């Protein structure tokens, strides 16, 4: 990433770190709830661990947050997901594979 600094030379940032841990990103698409799924909650269960995150829309001047939820899974290669939508619908998905972005549409039988 190249950063242009005011009245200073530019800064070049490079990520050379490689890791053996796994991750999962979840993008929610509302159909009955709002399309951006603001207020939806996802619970990821993997091994004996559990993480919960909610979709929130926060921004500032010239910035915005990613609406996708990122779960660090450590050594786990899959997770069970539970989605609680603002409409009140609750969905569960078992054994969702790690190291990918999944899209879950409200009311769908499986993530894509």
Structure description:
By secondary structure, the chain is an all-beta fold. It has a single domain, classed as Immunoglobulin-like. The protein contains no helices and 11 strands. The strands form 4 sheets. Strands 5-4-9-10 form a 4-stranded antiparallel sheet, with no helix packed on it. A 3-stranded mixed sheet has the order 8-3-11, with no helix packed on it. The chain is flat and about 55 Å long. The model has no long low-confidence stretch (mean pLDDT 95).
Q: Report the major sheet.
A: 4 strands, antiparallel
| Residues in helix, % | under 10%
Read across the widest sheet, the strand sequence of neighbours is 5-4-9-10
By DSSP, the count of extended strands is 11
Q: In one word, what is the shape?
A: flat
Explain the layout of strands and helices.
Blueprint: E1 2-3, E2 11-12, E3 22-29, E4 41-46, E5 49-54, E6 59-60, E7 63-64, E8 69-74, E9 78-84, E10 90-97, E11 100-105
Parallel strand pairs: 3-11
Antiparallel strand pairs: 1-2, 3-8, 4-5, 4-9, 6-7, 9-10
